[in-house]
Specification:
Layout (H helix, E strand, L loop, with lengths): L10 H6 L1 E3 L5 H21 L2 H6 L26 H31 L1 H22 L2 H4 L2 H14 L16 E4 L5 E4 L1 H22 L1 H10 L1 H12 L1 H8 L5 E2 L6 H13 L7 H9 L25 H13 L6 H12 L1 H6 L2 E2 L11 H23 L6 H29 L20 E4 L4 H13 L1 H10 L6 H21 L9 H23 L6 H5 L16 E3 L2 E3 L9
Parallel strand pairs: 1-3, 5-6
Antiparallel strand pairs: 2-3, 4-7, 7-8
Helix pairs in contact: 2-8, 2-10, 2-11, 4-5, 4-21, 5-7, 5-10, 5-11, 8-17, 8-20, 9-10, 15-18, 15-21, 15-22, 17-19, 18-19, 18-20, 18-22, 19-20, 20-21
Pfam family, one: PTR2
Keywords: Membrane, Transmembrane, Transmembrane helix
Main location: membrane
Length: 574
């Protein structure tokens, strides 16, 4: 039997031949380059938010730079304290991961993905300019005015959604290597590789932002924000200049909006204040029937139904396949600690000339080092040994490693409290008689552990979730699934808002420990509830890979450079 969506590959072939990834098109590398520049600008600004908002202007400083005691001094500006810094940065995370839903709707209904990203990148550049303006000395003289400009810039600056995975259009096929060996060129392994290297590009950009920590400390925040603004300015031009190399999906109606309408139509008759009753109705065999045109007599189909039966089936299968993402808010809740609170922890330690917000760059450095090792070494070796390290197993592993990183942070924080000269569980506020910091006599680099551990966990959990979101979605449902996957970080940020009261320095030990245990428990539940998906891996990868790819039952056309093509030709021009 031939595998659905393949080029003549049988199920027997899948067992007989070694599986390898396909070559990556040049357009995928161009997208990765754009994302590198975008992430440089993003991390070059947001990495400094905690210090910028939490800490006050250092003595004799007008722009946030450290003038006195540069060895252990911490750059700062607004002086709003830990809780407000946490809340504002959490709001930034929430907004960044909500906007892809708006972007997906605009891309599907109006402009297409490429034009949408191009327009949003110009808008984002305006946000960078406003952020730089918020940090000039004249703005910092009015804390409320500077804060207002900061919030406006956060609202304007949104994440530039990737279009990298859709650059690969190959299918499952057999191919003979120059050595004479016949192999299976696997789209699933290719997407795994694409997202590994896409994530590497993100983190090269993040590491490139290391300079921002030194610039803020030595030259002030407006200069620190001006540099990533200048780097981001190349993104719109690069996207426009290289357009002919991209596989571009034209707008053909919002799958996202249509999906919401299908769900609303199916949920309306079964909704109940009793969650158990509602859940039973959802799991019943007839739940989706009310949305299928075939359910109604000819001429009686509701006007609101603008889709076919197959589209309803794809919504059904996509909802089932993507239930795995419902666990990710807890993972990102755990991850947020290294993105927020550990920066505050590092400010209490002996810096020896190292900016405290520099240490968080160990996270992207870890990813840059280990992604090639996994891509070229560990994953191929596991396949050679016939070990099927499926996405569900990888994500579960990522949860457990993330929990370990948080328990490391909890133990470390306990010793920091004990060794602080002030012994008041507020080590960042400990001051000498001349009002310069009196740090804990421990090197700031002892905090490296959680950053490295969380970086390794991202390879298993975060990268795999992007791969899973793309490969498990029917082609015409991918914008829905990718938006839903990213929305989990927004949900995590919303959960974080409810924890603002405990995100204070004197409760960090308890906070880190509880995050670690919670992530382990959720990881265990994730495995128990999703392990059956391992057995359906091939079937899930085949969802929606047949000829019917269009919107609401129509056949899709894909724009490749200046050409419009269907199923016969899927290679980018140039």
């Amino acid at each position: 039997m031939i595998v659905e969506g393949s080029e003549g590959v049988t199920h027997k072939d899948l067992q007989a031949y070694r599986h390898v990834s396909d070559r990556l098109p040049i357009s995928a590398w161009l997208v990765a380059t754009v994302e590198l520049a975008e992430r440089w600008s993003y991390y070059g600004t947001t990495n400094g938010f905690t210090n910028y908002i939490r800490a006050e202007l250092p003595p004799q400083s007008r722009d946030g730079r450290v003038v006195v005691d540069r060895q252990d001094g911490v750059a700062g500006a607004l002086g709003l304290g830990q809780q407000k810094a946490f809340a504002i940065k959490t709001f930034n995370t929430f907004f960044v991961y909500v906007t892809p839903i708006l972007g997906a709707i605009i891309a599907d209904t109006m402009w297409g993905r490429h034009k949408t990203i191009l327009v949003f990148s110009v808008v984002c550049l305006v946000g960078h300019v406003i952020l730089t303006a918020s940090a000039v000395p004249s703005s910092l003289e009015n804390t409320n005015g500077a804060l207002a400009l900061l919030v406006i810039s956060i609202v304007i600056m949104a994440n530039v959604s990737p279009l990298i995975a859709e650059q690969y259009t190959g299918k499952l096929r057999k191919e003979m290597l120059p050595s004479g060996e016949t192999v299976i060129k696997s789209p699933a392994l290719t997407y795994q590789r694409i997202y590994l290297w896409f994530y590497a590009a993100i983190n090269v950009g993040a590491v490139g932002a290391i300079s921002a920590s030194f610039i803020a400390r030595n030259h002030g925040y407006w200069t620190a924000y001006l540099v990533p603004t200048a780097i981001f300015a190349i993104v719109p031009g690069l996207l426009a200049a290289t357009r002919k190399y991209y596989v571009i999906t034209p707008p053909r109606g919002s799958i996202l909006l249509e999906t919401f309408r299908v769900l609303r139509m199916c949920l309306s008759p079964v909704w109940s204040p009793n969650p158990r009753k509602t859940w039973r109705a959802i799991k019943s065999t007839g739940f989706w029937e009310v949305a299928k045109p075939s359910t109604y007599e000819e001429g009686e189909v509701p006007a609101s139904i603008t889709w076919d039966d197959e589209f309803v089936g794809e919504v059904d299968r996509t909802v089932n396949a993507c239930g795995v993402f419902l666990f990710f808010p807890f993972y990102w809740l755990c991850y947020s600690q290294i993105d927020n609170n550990l920066t505050t922890v590092s400010a209490s330690l002996r810096l020896d000339g190292t900016p405290n917000d520099l240490v968080q760059n160990l996270n992207p450095i870890t990813l840059i080092v280990f992604i090639p090792i996994f891509d070229r070494g560990i994953y191929p070796l596991l396949r050679k040994w016939k070990i099927n390290f499926t996405p569900i197993k990888r994500i579960t592993t990522g949860f457990f490693i993330a929990g370990l990183g948080m328990l490391y942070a909890a133990v470390l924080q306990h010793f920091i409290y004990q060794r602080s000269p002030c012994h008041n569980n507020l080590p960042t506020q400990c001051r000498k008689e001349d009002e310069t910091p009196d740090p804990v006599p421990m090197s700031v680099w002892v905090i490296a552990g959680p950053y490295v551990i969380m970086g390794i966990s991202e390879i298993f959990a975060s990268i795999t979730s992007l791969e899973y979101a793309f490969t498990k979605a029917p082609k015409r449902m991918r914008s829905v699934v990718m938006a839903f996957a990213q929305f989990q970080q927004a949900l995590a940020a919303a959960l974080n808002f409810s924890l603002t009261a405990v995100n204070v320095e004197d409760r960090f030990t308890w906070l880190f420990g509880s995050m670690g245990v919670t992530t382990w428990v959720v990881g265990a539940l994730f495995w128990i509830l999703n392990r059956e998906l391992d057995k359906r891996e091939l079937a899930l990868n085949s969802i929606g890979t047949g000829n019917r790819e269009g919107f609401a039952g129509e056949t899709a056309e894909t724009t490749v450079g200046t050409h419009r093509v269907g199923e016969e030709k899927q290679e980018p021009s140039g």
